[in-house]
Amino acid sequence: MLSSVVFSILTLILSCFVSTTEARRKLSATSLVTCMDNSQISPSYFNVTFNPDDRSLRYALDLTTSISGYITAHVQVYAYGFLIIEKDINVCSLGWKQFCPIYPGALQVDSVQYISSEYTKQIPGIAYQVPDIDAVVKLVVKERDSQETLSCLQANFSNGKTISQTGVKWATACIAGLGLIVAAMLSTFGNSNAASHISANSLSLFLYFQSVVVVSMQAVERVPPIASAWSENLAWSMGLIRIQFMQNIFRWYIQSTGGSPTTYFISTTKQVLVQKHKRSLDYVAGVAKRSLEYALRSHSNLYVLRGIKRIGYNSKIEPTSIVATGYTWFVLIGYLLVVLMVLVKSVIVLLTRAKKINPRTFNSFRGSFPNLIKGSLLRYIAIGSTQLIIFSLWEFTQNDSPAMVVLAVLFVLLLLGVLGWSYFNVMRIGKQSIRSYNNPAALLYGDNKVLQKWGFCYTMFHANKYWFGVVLMGYNVFKALFIAFCQDAGKVSVLPVFVADLAYTIYLIWTGPYLNKPTNVINYMMSIVTTINSFLFLFFSDLFGQPAPVASIMGWVFFILNAAFSLILLILVIVFVLLSVVSKNPDARFAPAKDDRFSFQRKSSIKHRSFTEKNASGNKDGGDEELTALGVAAQDHSADWESQMYKLNDLSLDEEDDSRTNQDFVRPDNANELTSDYDEGEEDEDNTRIATDDDKNKKLAAKWKSKISRKLSKKKSVKNKNDTTTVRRLSDTLINDERDSNERREENDELTPITNPYNQSTAFNNHKRAQSTTSTLSNNNPTNTKGFI
């Protein structure tokens, strides 16, 4: 029963990722390489295709030999490291006249040979269906009479099916990008809770995709084809995207700046092996057990590509163009991000001037656009930091051209400088907030400029774990150093990378730094999968000298684990995006962060009152004017509002203990300097309007304030109990932040008024803070006009 379930899951995964364009069964090989020193046969071109339907073997080869005489061949066929076919063949019995006998010199053959069914029946049918098959054919050439080994040749076969698909690349890229775009849109509209969740999960998904490619960039001895193909699907996350005209430009640029560009894709003088089957099959006479013990090396007719070069070559990118490709796409997408943001702002301004939308709807976006665009660019730089660090450090060892080395130096310095300055400011502001308010969220979330510009460093984490971004950055830089500088020694990098992944996973689970439990669990799983990937690459590097089948089987484990986990993460991101887009209140769809960040965030939706007052003055109905006055009173915060919230919290707690009533209360120095959140020009206009109101309207406003507030608090609960929108004072949020939700409702209904003289101070609009008509209602968005206007 269990085996059938596992088989069904495997079939489903393969059906999602495997191409079905190749309907005809075949086995083909395009590279024939030597697998021993001083081989007397050196191939320069090889192309063989076997059709099992008519048993035809079409081959074209070009080789040079120094053998003279009759030869025999010992053939071995390996599948996933297991020896499945082994046979001695007399070349003359096959009718190959070119090899019977063979003479020194160049040999070119282009022919068709029909293989006996005796041999074709030994090939299992699954060999034609499984994608990225790990099949190796080894040919040991010996002198017929003396049985002296003259040459060793090896070919890697493919059936034309692969899991590396353009559709998979586009799907993963679009879904990951969609999550980041929706998060940015939600933050613009003010849905900070939903935006924080989607942004955190989308960013983690993107970093996970990068981690799969990064671990595959290690120059290990043997990467199974299935594992190599899956990492190729995610190479876009590191900027390895091929467009032909770009590759032509990069080749010209490298050459014109003093470099020597490679031409592997247009050259026919040398063969390229991308190290999918790094080990050869070493034949030892008289030994029945065969093993993979001989490492292939580059020589005059063969290039063996490993690590970063292998990833680039599989993406159809020349090795000397890899760094230029990564840099170019990083800069282009950055420019595209800025253009889109400027375009969105321009459209909003035009619609506002045309009176198609409410001027207050995007007031915060327009007013803080410079900080928003800086924050977006800094977030984008942080996402691409791993890519830039690895490519820049690796360029120092490659020296594609002097110009590329200069660019690498600039990218490293600018990247470390910008991100280092950002994290330094976050740490400084967080510590300052702790000293002043005993809570890092007070300044990190209370100051909109800080939140918009440097929020990318800490918004996905719990407010008290704002520093964890520094840990994440250091972890990525540590891995990048070993991967970039150990491309010539894969065994050196695999162990430190695994230790770093394991240590980070343990520390992540111990600290639980993300904003709530579901987000923590998702990141735990991502980190665990990343650690397992690093563990598998220990075996791919042949660090333990294990048998060949071990690495081949672990290649399938790598694919199944990462494909299934990626599918789950993509579905989660899609669900989060749909919930946010479809829901009328996206914030209600996500569990709130387990901190008090939202208590410090001021909403901008009611700060600008001119639009409301204009409508109120044009309406003869007195009720609208009183309702406007209520909105004006609700938005009256002083400049030191963070300090006042803590003072109000202390007072409320002191009243519960008679022995400490008002003893610890300290009035801030600027308590009497009450200022509003809008411009001074609007402030003078409001004072004039309020001063000219007659006594009748003032009394009527005071009467209606309490009545309207009570009605609005019950309005939605009558229509729909599950969608209640009420309003709570900021000070109430701090008092009840850690209490149970049921107790919170009861306490809010019977909130004891604060009687300290400071709270009896009257603002310019005759509104007393201690007499707030909205203080007994509950809403985490105290300045949201939707609750009472």
UniProtKB/TrEMBL annotation:
Q: Subcellular location, in the record's words?
A: Membrane
Residue ranges spanning the membrane: these are 327-351, 372-394, 406-426, 466-485, 491-510, 522-541, 553-579
Q: Quote the biased-composition stretches of kind Basic and acidic residues, using this chain's numbering.
A: 687-698, 736-747
* Domain ML-like: start-end pairs: 25-164
Instruction: Tell me which PANTHER family the record gives.
Output: FLAVIN CARRIER PROTEIN 1-RELATED, INTEGRAL MEMBRANE PROTEIN (AFU_ORTHOLOGUE AFUA_7G01610)
The protein's predominant localisation is: membrane
Q: What organism is the protein native to?
A: Candida dubliniensis (strain CD36 / ATCC MYA-646 / CBS 7987 / NCPF 3949 / NRRL Y-17841)
Low complexity bias (residue ranges) = 772-789
Alphabetically sorted, this entry's keywords are: Membrane, Signal, Transmembrane, Transmembrane helix
Annotated Acidic residues bias: 676-686
Signal peptide location: 1-23
Q: Which InterPro entries match?
A: TRP_C, TRP_Flc/Pkd2-like, TRP_N
Q: What protein does this entry describe?
A: Flavin carrier protein, putative
* An example Gene Ontology biological process: transmembrane transport
Coiled-coil spans are: none
Amino acid composition bias (Polar residues), ranges on this chain: 753-765
Give the membrane topology, semicolon-separated if more than one.
Answer: Multi-pass membrane protein
Q: Name one Pfam family in it.
A: TRP_N
In terms of superkingdom, the source organism counts as Eukaryota
Q: Where is this region: Disordered?
A: 653-699, 711-789
Protein family: Belongs to the transient receptor potential (TRP) ion channel family.
Q: GO cellular-component terms in the record?
A: membrane
